[in-house]
Specification:
The chain is of the alpha+beta class. The chain has 4 helices and 7 strands. A hairpin with a 5-residue loop joins β5 and β6. The chain is globular.
Length: about 140
């Protein structure tokens, strides 16, 4: 079993602007998958979401989550992370993570713009604490 401390896993997750796909359970029991922008931050994966979104509400009900990040071209690979989330509304942490996410996905020249737009009250910092990491780096080999 892999872990977030594995350099190959960290490199895979941090390369370019791959999005993560988060699996949650809706209030009525339906499974949902939604894309996210994310960062590897220490021994967690961090992302933001609205407190009143489907994700925000699902995390308030049940802290269990699964995330997959995939490589959509050969040699096709993926990292799946299972774990639990912790939530924060701390304004400084929210602005910091929103700015870092904006920089990764929109470019450093727009990082502050996205930080100010997304690091606002009503948003959450979500930290995924892994309990299991499964990595496949070459599905064609």
């Amino acid at each position: 079993m892999a872990s977030l401390t594995d350099p190959k896993v960290r490199e895979f997750l941090s390369l370019g602007t791959r999005t993560g796909k988060v699996a949650i359970v809706a209030a009525d029991g339906r499974p949902l998958v939604t894309p996210i922008w994310f960062l590897v931050d220490g021994d967690t994966v961090v992302f933001n979401t609205g407190k009143n979104t489907a994700k925000g509400k699902a995390f308030a009900r049940d802290r269990r989550v699964a995330l997959v990040v995939d490589q959509e071209e050969p040699p096709y690979g993926s990292v799946q992370i299972q774990g639990t989330v912790s939530l924060s509304e701390d304004p400084e942490e929210l602005l910091r993570t929103a700015t870092a996410l904006g920089g990764r996905y929109m470019g450093e020249d727009r990082a502050e713009e996205f930080g100010r737009r997304n690091g606002v009250p009503g948003e959450l910092v979500v930290r995924l604490h892994p309990t299991k990491v499964i990595a496949h780096f070459d599905a064609t080999g």
